[in-house]
Amino acid sequence: QVYVVFSEELKCWCRALVESVWCQVDGYQLGCFLVDYAKYCSVASEKVRVLAGPFAKIAHRAKKCRLHCTKPLTLHIDYCENTAKMGPAKRWDTAAVQHFRKLIE
After folding, report:
1. Nearest residue to 33 via CA among 3, 54, 57, 10
2. Model pTM?
3. What is the pLDDT of residues 64-84, one digit of tens each?
4. Which residues, other chains included, contact 45 with Cβ-Cβ below 8 Å and sequence gap of 6+?
5. Which of 14, 29, 96, 104 is the most exposed place for a label (fewest CB within 10 A)?
6. Kind of pairing, strands 39-44 and 48-50?
């Protein structure tokens, strides 16, 4: 379900999908994907509203997607043998993500 959340970064109300919820000392935080900006953010539970009827039917501008058959790699360093090899990784490292975003822009 799509909700409306207030993004501190964008300083406006945005449509979002709630992906996770966790408890903090001062209340609940929600991990959200902003469907019109393709950004992730965390929002306090007080800044979440139910989306009004007609607005829920508007198509999202951003879609989650994956690169077909592209898997993350990382540099594996063996200090004992003094070698470095590229190998599979569980997640994309930060430098690869930043490089990919620059290519897209």
Report:
1. 3
2. 0.58
3. 677 777 888 888 888 998 999
4. 21, 27, 28, 29, 30
5. 104
6. unpaired
Q: Which fold has domain 2-57?
A: SH3 type barrels. (2.30.30)
Residue 39 contacts residue 53 (beta carbons within 8 Å): no
The predicted structure's pLDDT at residue 86: 87
Within the chain, all domains assigned CATH 2.30.30 are found at: 2-57
Pairing of strands 12-24, 27-34: antiparallel
Cβ partners under 8 Å of residue 28, min gap 6: 21, 22, 44, 45
Q: How is residue 97 written in tokens?
A: 């993500």
d(CA 105, CA 10): 19
C-beta atoms surrounding 32 within 10 Å: 23
